[in-house]
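Observation: inputs received (chain + magnesium ion).
Thought: call the complex predictor directly.
Action: predict_structure
Action Input:
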Amino acid sequence: PEAITVQELANRMAARGGEVVKALFRMGVMATLTQSIDADTAELVVQEFGHRVRRVSESDVEIGLEGMEDTDTDLQPRPPVVTIMGHVDHGKTSLLDALRKTDVVAHEAGGITQHIGAYQITVPDGSKVTFIDTPGHEAFTAMRARGASVTDMVVLVVAADDGVMPQTIEAIRHAKAAGVPLIVAVNKIDKPGVKPDRVKQELLQHEVVVESLGGDTQEIEVSATQRINLDKLLEAISLQAEVLDLKANPNRAAEGTVIESKLDRGRGPVATVLVQKGTLKQGDIVVAGAEWGRVRAMLDDKGRQLKDAPPSLPVEILGLSGVPSAGDNFIAVENEARAREVSEFRQRRAREKATAALGARGSLNDMLAR
Ligand code: GDP
Ligand code: MG
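Observation:
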């Protein structure tokens, strides 16, 4: 597709036209300042100049300040984002509930606990942990299918009385495919006669080697309902977070992922988003999936109204034009015109994908009819 002129590209990068011509030449592309190059080529040039690119349309690339790579000095530590996975009835919900109750600031808030698909707790040492609280596997799969990665680590819950089961194995596969580390929580150790050691052996068959067997996967024996070793599990999480050295730049336009969304009768479209970069501010203009709008209000999982949401904080946002999907990317943009542009591009892309899928189905039907 026809795209940007060399001069315009240079302007956007605040680079000299001649430098861009030279860079193109090195890539084997002969172009003068007034000639247009396609977006794919433009992307390569932009990367060559050390910038990050964002496609805003099929034929256009955006090189804005918010697209710039963060330097080391911009990066600050951020809380880990944890997903709890495991076989049905092994205690995921119970564990999420139990961990939520360890929040040392919850009672001070005075707000009412909301289910927004994710929550953040403050542990006794003052550090924070974010838990994704969506129906695990489906959300995880949906997000991965959209190329979104939200979780830094997976806590794999395995009931001591049941052992490794099909969804345990599935969870291990998901975590491995996503390249995120596992922490094993052997749950229900309060039950009489359970053998947590058996779980370790079973995990071995799926290439999960826990520390007590010489591997590097942390393993904690817990009881969600009896609240045993929750502190140890939180310690394991913060240790893993330290190893991962999680950082983000809070001082830039916000970017992140939609965790869940719904159409609320009173409040209109409501989306829970996880801020992954930058700080989301009330009043920001955002694009979430193909929807956009001005953030009218922002609430945390304790129902408190926020003015700012830093990296790793999940917040509910109000003010979008429609309901985006779990796994959709969201970005704060500079103005409404830009929001419309990005939104239209995403809508067009979604339509094209749908048409392509329809076409594929059509031809399959044709084949079957023959
Ligand atoms: P999920 O399907 O993985 O979310 O599992 P749930 O949290 O719904 O738990 C399934 C069942 O196991 C419920 O009846 C819980 O009360 C029970 N359960 C969960 N954790 C424990 C535990 O640590 N000890 C015991 N004895 N029961 C538990
Ligand atoms: Mg559950």
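Thought: report the result.
Final Answer: The pocket of magnesium ion (ligand 2) is lined by residues 92-93 (CB under 6 Å). The longest strand covers residues 255-264.
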